[in-house]
Design goal:
CATH architecture of the largest domain: 3-Layer(aba) Sandwich
Shape: elongated
Structural class: alpha/beta
Helix content: 25-40%
CATH superfamily of the largest domain: Methylglyoxal synthase-like domain
Number of domains: 3
Radius of gyration: 30 Å
Largest sheet: 6 strands, mixed
CATH topology of the largest domain: Rossmann fold
Oligomer: single chain
Amino acid sequence: MWRLERSPAEGRSKGSTPDMRALISVYDKSGILDFATGLRELDVTILATDGTYEFLTENGIDVEPVSSVTDYPEILGGRVKTLHPAIFGAILCDRSSQEHNAALAEHEIEPIDLVVVNLYPFVDVVSRGGVGRDEAIEFIDIGGAALIRAAAKNHRDVTPVVDPEDYEDVLAELYRYRANKDKTRRRLAAKAFAHTSAYDAYVTSFFSNEDEERFPPAFTVPLYKIQDLRYGENLHQRAALYADTPRSKELRQPSTVATALQLHGKALSFNNLLDCDAAWSMVTDFSAPAAAVVKHTNPTGIAAGKDLKEAYLRAFAGDPQAAYGGIVGVNRTMDEATAEEIVRMYFEAVVAPDFTDAAVQVLSRKKAIRLLSVRADGEGPLQDVSWIEYHNLDFKRIDGGFLIQSRNAASDLSMNMQVVSKRQPTLEELTDLHFAWRAVKHVKSNGIVLAKKLALVGVGAGQMSRVNAVDLAVRMAGDRSHGSVLASDAYFPFPDGVERAVEAGVTAIIQPGGSIRDKDAIEAADRGAVAMIFTGLRHFKH
């Protein structure tokens, strides 16, 4: 708990603000005792709603109940307690308006100068699971949100405070200036409106989820700033990192790159974060120990292994030259043996669910390398945010708007897989085809991957022509293309891509199918005795 240090000379008489009144109504009580104590030392009169009143008075703080002003008790189980002209008139009065001041005088209403409110924990309650609709509705805060908005609207005269993190700064200004600065009140007003806007967005999401309306007429996504970044994709661009998960002291944050804990190294850049997220997305698509090496959001290698060390070594072998300066992602706790291999090469960052102490010590030999732990943070139960609609959606910016789609979570072939060639794939080929299909989902279109023994040996990414993508993958693989399998993120529009793969020694191909020339592609596979599978599912990644 923080405490403001003051000299003995700064007694109540010297520091008092005798005409100031504050309204406090908080569900989250953290920091409120020290804050209220500081207000009383300044002779600020404190009004409080029932729950807050009981908490403060039990702790020896002189507080007046809101009902002493409204002359009306809380009713409807607390649904109505501050919705009264004596409260909202006191907050919304424009002190520069003679008409407003006269109205307050006529109705014997004293102004309120400071409004300290935080809301019922709607997100926390719903995210814990097993909460019925009626219970969730009781945690939709009406009066609190109205108080915040009223104070924020009249911020020229009233200080709105919604975050316990601001208590110290607000109180420090009151001790020094006997009032809060205009700049402070404007900042807190913007924060207050953002707070209620986010709250309303979650409530909206709850009802949209109930109605199964995936794409409602209006869409609001609350974002929470994590940190400023040194620059964006290029030096002349400004940038910051935001998380899309609501902050909560009660619940752990889910495992995401946005909220990951950096254990070592230089500050993460905009491009580092993009590549870390790509690497994390790749490795978490596999259940076996897996590793990926990423450059510019594309894999230079992805591999699975019996353990993490083997998976990393095989992923690195995908393209050792291109791997230099890339990002390493793994889906198991980083261990010392794997760290000893990684530290042999220069990488920008390593992202993992967690790191052993020994692994951190080894990797820290490289002063600049960033170590990103994506373990869920906090002490409470893991937050289930699946009910928040935008967590299951993918957003892409275009000039003047956004494209919104469901996430590409499809990987299972069992419902759509169809062998269309004369030759059936062997069990070994089929295993590699499943692996390759999961991997190609993470390659920019037009995308082609070659895989052998659960490791990528060739990647052709982001090409305008599919046959060029095949050529790139084959060139990267070299002799390793012999006996490999190929996955294509979309159909072959012409047989030439299949013919190049056959020439390179590819023995099996997996692709969506759906081209008007599918028959030509199948015939090309049959001429080369290559097994071919159609999935009926496309994996474009623009």
